[in-house]
Design goal:
Elements lengths: L1 H5 L5 E7 L2 E2 L7 E11 L10 E10 L9 E11 L9 E11 L2
Antiparallel strand pairs: 1-2, 1-5, 3-4, 5-6
């Protein structure tokens, strides 16, 4: 399970911006959650069998200082090109539009 969660991450490129300002040194934010229990509900978006499962997570987590009131955009881009296991390859680019209220 740990191998599956971590496999391919070393071949990834990650980039993030907050209001167009690039966050630096994102590779230092890689962390592991360790083992935990996860419940998959009926009729889930992955069409996976429902039930309780043991899981392990590995990835990047960034905590931001509180943002001032107003609208903010957080953009994340990830690309994995794994030469050993191409089935792990993917690209993602998403933006969170935040509206911070006082």
């Amino acid at each position: 399970m740990r191998k599956c969660a971590t496999a391919g991450n070393e071949y990834g490129a990650i980039e993030a911006t907050v209001d167009g300002v690039k966050l630096k040194d994102l590779k230092s934010y890689r962390t592991q959650a360790g083992y935990f229990n996860s419940t998959i509900v009926d009729n889930n978006i992955y069409d996976s069998p429902s039930g309780d499962y043991r899981a392990f997570a590995d990835g990047y987590s960034v905590f931001l200082e509180p943002l001032p009131a107003g609208k903010h955009d957080v953009n994340l881009k990830v690309s994995v090109l794994n030469p050993i296991e191409p089935s792990y390859n993917y690209n993602a680019d998403w933006t969170y539009h935040l509206n911070i209220v006082p």
